[in-house]
Amino acid sequence: MSQYPDISLIEEIKKFLADEMMDDTDDQIMKTLEQWQTQHISSSRNIHPHSRRYYNRERGVGHVQLFNDYFTDEPVYPSHIFCRRFRMRRELFLQIVESMTNHSEFFQMRVDATGKRLSPLQKTTAAIQQLAYGAPADQLDKYIRMGESTAIECLSQFCRCVIDIYGAQYLRRPNTNDVERLLQLPSQRHGFLGMLGSINCMHWQWKNCPVAWKGQFTRGDQGSPTIMLEAVVSADLWIWHAFFGVAGSNNDINVLNQSPLFNDVSHGYAPDIQFMVNDTQYNKGYCLADDIYPEWATFVKSFTSPKDPKRIKFKQMQEAAKKDVEQAFGVLQFRWAIVRGPARFWHIAKLKDIMYTCIILHNMIVEDERDVIRNWDDDDEEPTIPVTQGLVENFHHYLQRNAKLRDWEVHHQLRSDLVKHIWERFGGNNNEN
Asked: Which InterPro entries does the protein's record reference (predicted)?
């Protein structure tokens, strides 16, 4: 419906009044009606202006300042300042900018209808700054010379492009080569042969959760709506599995039941692992988990209140090794503050894009700085564990593999063997190294 009064209707009213009323009083009524019509149209136009205000932000000045500050041969700010503010090395950032430009027209240097344009550096920097600092989009206007709506669009486009370009590589499940490397990391520190990582869940507060959904997304210990992230993290802080989007009212078991964590194992796609612990052979890797997780062959949990010195030592080593996942959550939230503070978007799909983008960038940085983050050197080397690629078989074998995943007898046998192995290796020595 139009925001202005129906002119034809007013004319019909005027004609009707003119036909019915011919004296001086009638003329006064017609004059009053015309005045009302003029005033109403004028006020409507003032309330609903036709054009939006334009601000000359001098976008070119913003690009020049950004380029001189960080990207010239002799920038104003050195490399360690760049790494702190952009959360990565400059070489990695420029690689991402080039990938964005080649993948999407949005990140290319395009001229709009007014002849203005933003550079790929400005657009990518705007997205990175929102992820890194969790700041409102309007805050970027002062330095990058970019409006709020444009900055939000940059963030949305950046997340989609990162997932499209890098998702297959940096959100992948461990392949044979990955598993061979993973099996060497935890055994050197804590003696957990066959361990692939640690599993746990994290909550992200959802500030703009719709009122109708708040009961579904709120849990008592959180006090506000949250969305859950399930992750499996290796000792080098690489996030190998990420499942995000479950309502915060669920617990870790509910998330696990919805998660595709063991889909590859059930279908026979996952690499087969064979390792010996205390003269017992096992054919599947496992994750360290909290007490809430089920007693499956793929989980190794601690003891609640151990009294035996061997179990006490096992509990200490298991809890120390399991802190990798908590450390990864801490690094993820510290590096990308947008997932540390309350989420301000309305739609879960956008929140998923943001979370998975942060995880992809986290893994890219871990890969780029892997030798700096961890360089283990242990004289007491463990034997190399053979890894082979699993086979795809029929539904009968699928059910068998599912049953083996949930075998509680193997769970207890594996934990018992690990208790003996860790005690033989570390004994009563409190120094883990």
From this structure: Harbinger_derived_prot (IPR006912)
Q: 179 vs 186, which has greater pLDDT?
A: 179
Q: What is the DSSP letter of 273?
A: E
Say if residue 89's pLDDT is above 70.
yes
List the domain range (segments joined by +) for residue 212: 176-426
DSSP string, 277-294: ETTEEE-S-EEE--TTS-
Which of 59-63, 218-222, 319-323: highest mean pLDDT? 319-323
What are the residues facing 282 on neighbouring strands? 275
Question: pLDDT (tens digit, 9 = 90+) per residue, 112-126?
Answer: 666 677 889 999 999
Residues 22 and 75 in one domain: no
**Same-domain check for residues 240 and 325:** yes
90 lies in the same domain as 210: no
**Same domain flag for 218 and 246:** yes
Pairing mode of beta strands 239-247, 275-277: unpaired
Cβ-based burial of 325 (10 A; exposed 0-12, middle 13-18, buried ≥19): buried
Whole-model pTM: value is 0.79
Alpha-carbon distance of 134 to 149, in angstroms, equals: 16
Identity of residue 230: E
Taking alpha carbons only, the member of 170, 229, 184 closest to residue 348 is 229
